[in-house]
């Protein structure tokens, strides 16, 4: 099978982790795999795995940008199946390949405000949608996407390579006794870095916050750090490929997000035995109850309280870490890749017009 995978970019983010994992697994199965995306450090991961990467400008929103992306996708050798991640890559892929090639979408999550628009795009452009959690699937169906063309495959992470804590802190220039928080997230409105920076000003002089990720909000986040005089207390690391090292150095992961699908960063923290402080939002609460110190979304006071609770209690940290390890065992990569193998075979083996009525959610 010739598989074309389309994703906006390949930097920090859960969708990117899943895309690289699935592309690598498909190539290992003997399929001819091409990944089309904008730039990012994960491109090198694909190359090391022997997966061909084609640079395509998928991030821009203007008509010229979109037309250029469609033209570039159209120039590629015709695939047997397209696997697109999220609505815009799905739309551009469909415009490029027409109706003769089946298009599968993985929906990693959209905000409630954008969900109806996403449902309209996917209804027209996608033969089948895989949602990364039941919450994402239910919301999409409520906003008009056909349930019979929807199924759920939970996100997963593999084992993280061990990294000694002392070495990680030394390499990152962190004091051995500092309280270290880590946020692994793209710098976009959804992730509420602004809330986190405000909360961090109440945490303490010896605390260090590591912000790993990039995005359109980076300059605003940097300005907020400077305005609050946090200096070396908050470090903007940009895109990073050393997640194992960052987690080894951290006392906790923090995610003050407004919404989620099923966040890979939380699963990675669980796999590394790092406790998590995160917003009490759908996409988190139904999967991770008892394994996360939940805080109220949008509340600086609640976020500060949650961080103080985790930093102030070794018993709480140990309990959360143990619960997280137990949870992550249910989110294994083999189960995820097996489900996608079955979906790929089903879609690539049937004409596109039959795909629109086959199957239902599992």
List strands and helices in order, with pairings:
Layout: E1 2-6, H1 14-28, E2 32-37, H2 42-48, E3 52-55, H3 63-75, E4 81-85, H4 87-97, E5 103-107, H5 112-125, E6 128-131, H6 134-142, E7 150-152, H7 165-172, E8 179-184, H8 193-200, E9 207-212, H9 218-227, E10 234-238, H10 243-249, E11 252-255, H11 264-272, E12 276-279, H12 285-288, E13 293-295, H13 300-312, H14 314-328, H15 333-348, H16 352-355
Parallel strand pairs: 1-2, 1-4, 2-3, 4-5, 5-6, 6-7, 8-9, 8-11, 9-10, 11-12, 12-13
Here the CATH topology of the largest domain equals Rossmann fold
The assigned CATH architecture of the largest domain is 3-Layer(aba) Sandwich
Helix percentage: 40-55%
Count of helical segments?
16
- Strands across the major sheet, in which order? 3-2-1-4-5-6-7
The domain tally reads 2
Please report the total strand number as a whole number: 13
Q: Which residues form runs of ≥5 with pLDDT under 50?
A: 350-360
Helix/strand/pairing category: alpha/beta
Q: Tell me about the biggest sheet?
A: 7 strands, parallel
CATH first level of the largest domain: Alpha Beta
Order of helices and strands: EHEHEHEHEHEHEHEHEHEHEHEHEHHHH
* Overall mean pLDDT: 91
**Outline:** globular
Give the C-alpha Rg. 20 Å
CATH homology-level superfamily of the largest domain: Glycogen Phosphorylase B
What's the N-to-C terminus distance? 24 Å
Query: What fraction strand?
Result: 15-25%
């Amino acid at each position: 099978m010739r598989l074309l995978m389309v994703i906006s970019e390949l930097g920090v983010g859960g969708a990117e982790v899943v895309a690289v994992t699935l592309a690598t697994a498909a190539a290992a199965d003997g399929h001819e795999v091409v990944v089309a995306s904008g730039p990012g450090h994960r491109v090198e991961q694909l190359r090391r795995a022997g997966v061909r990467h084609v640079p395509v400008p998928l991030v821009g929103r203007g008509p010229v940008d979109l037309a250029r992306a469609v033209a570039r996708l159209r120039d590629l050798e015709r695939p047997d199946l397209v696997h697109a991640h999220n609505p815009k890559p799905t739309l551009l892929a469909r415009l490029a390949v027409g109706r003769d090639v089946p298009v599968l979408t993985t929906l990693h999550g959209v905000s409630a405000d954008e969900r109806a628009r996403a449902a309209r795009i996917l209804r027209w452009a996608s033969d089948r949608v895989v949602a990364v959690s039941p919450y994402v699937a239910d919301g999409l169906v409520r906003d008009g996407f056909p349930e019979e063309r929807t199924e759920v495959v939970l996100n997963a992470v593999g084992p993280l390579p061990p990294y000694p804590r002392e070495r990680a802190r030394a390499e990152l220039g962190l004091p051995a006794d500092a309280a270290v928080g880590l946020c692994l997230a793209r710098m976009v409105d959804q992730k509420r870095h602004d809330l986190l920076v405000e909360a961090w000003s109440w945490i303490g002089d010896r605390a260090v916050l590591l912000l790993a990720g990039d995005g359109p909000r980076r300059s605003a986040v940097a300005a907020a750090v400077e305005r609050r005089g946090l200096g070396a207390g908050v470090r903007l690391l940009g895109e990073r490929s050393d997640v194992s090292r960052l987690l080894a150095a951290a006392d906790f992961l923090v995610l003050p997000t407004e919404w989620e699908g099923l966040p890979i960063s939380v699963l990675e923290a669980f796999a590394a035995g790092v406790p998590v402080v995160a917003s009490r939002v759908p996409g988190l609460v139904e999967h991770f109850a008892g394994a996360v110190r939940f805080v109220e979304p949008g509340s600086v006071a609640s976020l500060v309280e949650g961080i103080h609770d985790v930093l102030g209690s070794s018993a709480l940290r140990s309990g959360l870490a143990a619960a997280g390890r137990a949870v992550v065992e249910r989110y294994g990569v083999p189960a995820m890749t097996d489900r996608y193998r079955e979906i790929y075979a089903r879609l690539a083996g049937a004409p596109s017009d039959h795909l629109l009525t086959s199957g239902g959610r599992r």
